[in-house]
């Protein structure tokens, strides 16, 4: 655990150093730029609240990808599952009006179901026709994007009358997530979802079976694990997490389905899962870190005149350094640990020889 944490921090430190070098070559002051980035994303409670709210879709889509990758399935359908979860929450929010204690859980359940059902299509095709979920989930992303865009296009079946841009009407007020102090309730939901999936994955028998299948499917099958059933369950859970991310985004604002609501959240989540090496805890940490980078980017541009696109470059460098250097750093740390363990015996031999 310590070794992995050290490797992650070292990778981030190296990437930040490379980013500082880029800034110096451009005639910028790295400490000023990084200081503005930290101040504008974590400087006070309000800024921290915005960062955590922005982290919700990144963490949940990252967990969706990490859960799948660590358990065997190659689910790359987070963008489509995100959209279908957002759409499901919107449809229920437009159809039903209940008090908030009933309405909010209902919309979250709809979002979970929407994402799970969209992932379930890929799982069914894999089961029935042995079609690769890698290809199917990618193709379903385009279908979800085009389908939801058609629904809200001006004049479409879900478009708001009189709107000047593609969007749906607003959901009922009971389905809108408010704030606890400065912090949106979606942050609490994200934390509960991350804790629940982490507990199931690491502390239960199904989670153990998923981990075994992710490491060696043949070993898991020979050990009596229901590999096919677990594949289906993991795909549904992975899709549900991505769908929940979409639903929470609608419920926390803008309270409607709008064109481009998915932005790059889902693909960023996949990137975070890759950087975290599909470790659930690391996925949460990287999700918060990338959210802080993205939150502080625009304000950093205003204060330091450094383009916000620098953050995209920095994210890319972090990914490259983390993934490319993962094996080297682990090998280096293993050698250092082995040297520490063998050092006492070498010293003992030296003392014996001197006597």
The strand order across the widest sheet is 1-2
Approximate shape: globular
Mean pLDDT across residues: 92
Distance from N terminus to C terminus (CA atoms, Å) equals: 40 Å
Which CATH class of the largest domain? Mainly Alpha
Number of helices: 13
The CATH architecture assignment of the largest domain turns out to be: Orthogonal Bundle
Work out the count of structural domains. 2
Uncertain stretches: none
Estimated structural class: mainly alpha
* CATH fold-level topology of the largest domain: ABC transporter involved in vitamin B12 uptake, BtuC
Order of helices and strands: HHHHHHEEHHHHHHH
Strand content: under 5%
Q: Name the helicity range.
A: over 70%
- Rg estimate, integer Å: 23 Å
User: Largest sheet, if any?
Assistant: 2 strands, antiparallel
């Amino acid at each position: 655990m310590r070794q992995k944490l050290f490797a992650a921090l070292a990778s981030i430190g190296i990437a930040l150093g490379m980013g500082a070098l880029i800034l110096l070559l451009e005639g910028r002051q790295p400490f000023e730029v990084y200081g503005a980035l930290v101040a504008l994303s974590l400087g006070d409670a309000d800024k921290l609240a915005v960062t955590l709210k922005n982290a919700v879709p990144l963490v949940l889509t990252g967990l969706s990808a990490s859960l799948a990758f660590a358990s065997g399935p190659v689910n790359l359908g987070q963008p489509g599952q995100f959209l279908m979860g957002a759409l499901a929450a919107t449809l229920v929010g437009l159809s039903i009006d209940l008090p908030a204690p009933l309405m909010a859980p209902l919309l979250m359940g709809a979002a979970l179901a929407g994402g799970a059902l969209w992932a379930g299509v890929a799982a069914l095709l894999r089961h029935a026709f042995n079609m690769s979920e890698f290809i199917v989930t990618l193709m379903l992303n385009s279908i979800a994007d085009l389908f939801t865009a058609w629904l809200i296009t001006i004049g479409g079946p879900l478009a708001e009358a009189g709107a000047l841009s593609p969007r749906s009407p607003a959901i009922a007020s009971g389905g809108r997530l408010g704030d606890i102090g400065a912090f949106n309730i979606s942050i609490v939901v994200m934390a509960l979802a991350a804790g629940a999936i982490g507990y199931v994955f690491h502390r239960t028998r199904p989670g153990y079976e998923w981990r075994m299948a992710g490491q060696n499917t043949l070993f898991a099958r020979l050990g009596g694990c229901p590999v096919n059933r677990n594949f289906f369950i993991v795909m549904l859970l992975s899709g549900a997490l991505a769908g929940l991310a979409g639903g929470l985004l609608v419920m926390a604002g803008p309270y409607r389905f709008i064109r481009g609501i998915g932005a790059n959240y889902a693909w960023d989540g996949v990137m975070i899962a890759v950087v975290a090496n599909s470790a659930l805890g690391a996925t949460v940490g990287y999700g918060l870190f990338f959210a802080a980078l993205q939150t502080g980017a625009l304000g950093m541009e205003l204060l330091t005149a450094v383009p916000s696109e620098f953050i995209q470059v920095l994210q890319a460098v972090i990914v490259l350094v983390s993934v490319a250097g993962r094996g080297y750093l682990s090998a280096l740390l293993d050698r250092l640990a082995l040297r520490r363990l063998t050092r006492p015996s070498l010293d003992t031999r030296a003392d014996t020889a001197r006597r």
